[in-house]
Amino acid sequence: MSNPTAEMIERGSTQTDRRRGGQRRRMASRVQKARERLTSSGTGHRNFDRELLRLFAQGHQQSLWGEVTVVMLIAGTSLYYAPHLVVAGWLGLCALLTLSVSLLARRFLRLQPKHVKMRSWQRTFGLATGAQSLAWSLGPMVFLALHVQSPVAVVSFMAVLQLAMVALLAAAVPAAIYLGLVPITTSLLIYLFIREPQAFFPLALLVLACLAYFMMFARQIYVKALEGMKLEADKDELIAELEQSKLNSDEARRRAEEASLAKSRFLATMSHELRTPLNAILGFSEVMKGELFGPHQVSAYKDYSGDIHASGQHLLGLINEILDLSRVEAGRQELREEPVSLIHVVEECRHLMKIRAQKREIIVTENIESTLPRIWADERAVRQITLNLLSNAIKFTPQGGAITIKVGWTQTGGQYLMIRDNGPGIPESEIPVVMSSFGRGSLAQKNADEGSGLGLPIVKGLMELHGGTLALKSKIRVGTDAIVVFPPSRVMAALPQLDPDAPVPSVVQLATKTAA
């Protein structure tokens, strides 16, 4: 099966794009609704009004039996002062209206939000509360009409109790508050004016003070409920925007990953197409440089051939690094694992880089633990890791500097390779840059040192394939430590050393030992 290209990946993700596009549109709609709700003026917004009506309806639904109980207690107290039939009639009227309000509330709660007509239900609940309050206010009027000698304190207490119930239950609908409080207050004032004309003004002030208090209390409940709704809307808006931002970032990351994967796969399949013409250029330029078919008539052609050959080698090395990194990023780098001696690989790489170090008069010293067992790894990858790190150290070490190579055990039982130089160092803020693909530090750019910025990313990718890590520790004007660590799972357990002078056991001894 052929490797997918960027176009194939784009076509394959069409269905995913459509689904995510629909999700983004729904999320944008939620954000828009939340913003409209927050920027609306007053409390007439549909969502807020519906929530207030829902609170009103739930309050009456849940307090139905409480209201009936209070009305029955008031009726039971009135039996001491008024005829039973009159009290029973008043009780029946109050219970009927209370039940009617409860049925209206149940009907509202069963409606779908989109079918709710706000103004109509506000008016309905207000009129229902006013009718219920008017029925409750008939008590003092009945006492007056029948000339019943009822205690003023009892009637006043009954009226104040009714005011408290209305203030609590109708607080969510302002119209219901006024329509519920006014009839009871008016009835009580009329009763006090007729029964206690001499003390009417002090009593009236007390009644009006109670009315003001209950209205303020109901207003506070209304304001708190409205603030809670605004906070909830603010929270919904924040959550919606966070989800929208997350979707945007996920989409951007997905597209970036797809583009990077397509690029890596494309480069990983271009090995033959890129290397074949370069090999021809290198071969023919080497023939021309060596004058195998005779000397050049113009001596400059030999120099040109040498330049072509050097440039081709540099370009081939760059392409090899790009292809190596692309294979690692595309997940196509396969490790050919075998027992590898890290010490042996380091010695080979040090020998290969010896001439380059000598040209710059760099002293390379070693500090290697000689008893290290082999590791289970890809020898080519380990060699490339060592060469890349050693090449970087030589490149950035000044003339006459020093490089130290250390190989040994880690505290957890793994093995490490550290290459230390006494170069100018890397600023801490630039370490993530030099660890990224094509990343070059300020020193490399200032000195125009050769390199593509792929050496360390390749080392990092190869170490991750081995389950290991790459770390850089650097101080300005002190030097840099490049450390690669192979995990303990890569270290092969060494067998006990055989004693050449030990006697060879007989077959009988072996059989006896096995049976035991």
Characterise the protein shown here:
- The protein is an alpha+beta fold and 516 residues long.
- It has 3 domains: 25-240, no CATH class; 271-329; 337-490, Heat Shock Protein 90, CATH 3.30.565.10.
- 66% of the residues lie in helices and 9% in strands.
- It is built from 19 helices and 7 strands.
- It has a 5-stranded mixed sheet. A two-stranded antiparallel ribbon has the order 1-3.
- It is rod-shaped.
Give a quick precis of the structure.
66% of the residues lie in helices and 9% in strands. The chain has 19 helices and 7 strands. Strands 2-4-5-7-6 form a 5-stranded mixed sheet. The protein has a two-stranded antiparallel sheet with strand order 1-3.
Order of helices and strands: HHHHHHHHHHHHEHHEEHEEHHHEEH
Low-confidence stretches: 1-14, 38-44, 507-511
Write down the Rg: 46 Å
Largest beta sheet: strand ordering: 2-4-5-7-6
Mean pLDDT: 79
Helical fraction equals 55-70%
Derived from helix and strand composition plus strand pairing, the structural class reads: alpha+beta
Distance between the termini: 57 Å
Q: Which outline best applies?
A: rod-shaped
According to DSSP, the number of beta strands is 7
Number of domains: 3
Specify the biggest β-sheet: 5 strands, mixed
Strand content: 5-15%
Number of helical segments with 4 or more residues: 19
Summarize the helices and strands and which ones pair or pack.
Layout (H helix, E strand, L loop, with lengths): L5 H7 L1 H26 L6 H17 L1 H15 L5 H27 L7 H19 L1 H8 L6 H18 L4 H22 L4 H69 L2 H20 L9 H30 L7 E4 L1 H11 L1 H6 L3 E6 L6 E4 H18 L5 E8 L5 E7 L9 H4 L7 H6 L7 H11 L3 E7 L3 E8 L20 H9 L1
Parallel strand pairs: 2-4
Antiparallel strand pairs: 1-3, 4-5, 5-7, 6-7
